Amino acid sequence: MNPRLRALLQFFALAAVIALLLFIFPRAFAFAELAARELFYLWWLILLIALAIWLIWGVSRKPK
Questions:
Q1: pLDDT tens-digit profile of 20-31?
Q2: 23-27, 31-35, 38-42, 52-56: which range is least confident on average?
Q3: What's the CA gap between 12 and 61, in Å, rounded?
Q4: What are the extents of the domains in the chain?
Q5: What is the residue-wise DSSP string for the chain?
Q6: Which of 14, 39, 19, 42 is nearest to 29 (CA)?
Q7: Terminal CA-to-CA distance of the chain, rounded, Å?
Q8: pTM (two decimals)
Q9: Which residues contact 52 (CB under 8 A, 6 or more apart)?
Q10: Which residues of 3-36 are buried (b: 16+ CB within 10 A; e: fewer)?
Q11: Across the chain, where does the E strand assignment appear?
């Protein structure tokens, strides 16, 4: 089994587990849908978190 096929199988397994859990727990699906809708309105929060992560790992790296 080559690495690309293995990664693809792992991705589909993870997606299947998430879909199964959301099917078993419909309130979790409603929560995920609400969170996605709220994040659409709070896109600036996503950008701030991404900037913080970039600064944490970018500043701590030593130049080559």
A1: 988 898 887 888
A2: 38-42
A3: 34
A4: 3-60
A5: --HHHHHHHHHHHHHHHHHHHHHH-HHHHHHHHHHHHHHHHTHHHHHHHHHHHHHHHHHHSPP-
A6: 19
A7: 36
A8: 0.47
A9: none
A10: eeeeeeeeeeeeeeeeeeebeeeeeeeeeeeeee
A11: none
Task: Name the one residue in this structure whose structure tokens are 């309130």.
Answer: 27
DSSP 8-state code for residue 58: H
Residue 54, both tokens: 């970039």
* Backbone φ, ψ for residue 62 (5° rounding): -90, 140
Structure tokens at 39: 């994040």
Both structure tokens of 48: 């701030």
Which tokens in the block code for residue 18? 């998430």
Report the length, in residues, of the chain: 64
What is d(CA 46, CA 43) in angstroms, rounded to the nearest whole number? Answer: 5
